[in-house]
Specification:
The chain has 275 residues and is mainly α. The chain is built from 12 helices and no strands.
Length: 275
Amino acid sequence: MIKQNPFSLYDFLGYFVPGAILVYFYLILDFLENNENQFKLSRFLADTGNLKLDQILFFIIISYALGHLVNFISSITIEKYAIWKYDYPSKYLLNLKLKGYWANGLIRNSWRILMPIILFPIAKLDFILGDILQFKDFYTRKLDDFLIGLIKEKGQKLLNKLFTNESMNERINNNVEEYDFFRLFAHYTFEHSKSHQFKIVNYVALYGFLRVLSLITVIVFWFLFFSMIIKTIPFNIWVLFIVSIVSYIFFMAFMKFYRRYTLEGLMLIAINEEL
């Protein structure tokens, strides 16, 4: 079992760094406002580099707390959008039937209409590059038929092993595609594959970090857009385009490591000699 540190890699990448990025973004805006919109890196670093111990401690606390907030928001926006559109990686890796973006119910569909608007920089490029130009194949492609068959067979053995009650077993066997079966697989493989725990934790930290960065760039996009609309800064379509590209790249990277994390768990099921 890997040792649990009070401040883990996920705490650093998933909470502290994103929070620090937002704090620095605010400091840069404040610097620009007080320096007639002229940004000089050396002067900015000089202004922010002479911090006292209590100021450094305050910066760490604020960054960590703000990081928790933006991390949570990214999980209910970026990750939720990805799941609504592509389903869980465990589903498309195993070529299971996908539910599609639209769900039953007016309220749920209303949120699914609003989400692409909120995540417009990502959603527009996900449609143009992901759907039309098939960039989505880089991060949503299924496994080959041999691995799919092997993982399904061993996964079924694991479910039969975990659930010995006949009625429960039959219900799971008949509707396995409807359940979040990978949650069971993930806990089982993490507990029974000690040598792979560090790699799994790294994947979780990386996809969480990239998910938050994707949201931060969306926030920057909307901030720049509305600043240009109210003419506090000159309108520049290329700046918005570049920020959109960066946000989509972060989204693709998030999807890539989300897929790798899931693939790691599925492959540990496939090579398990006890199943």
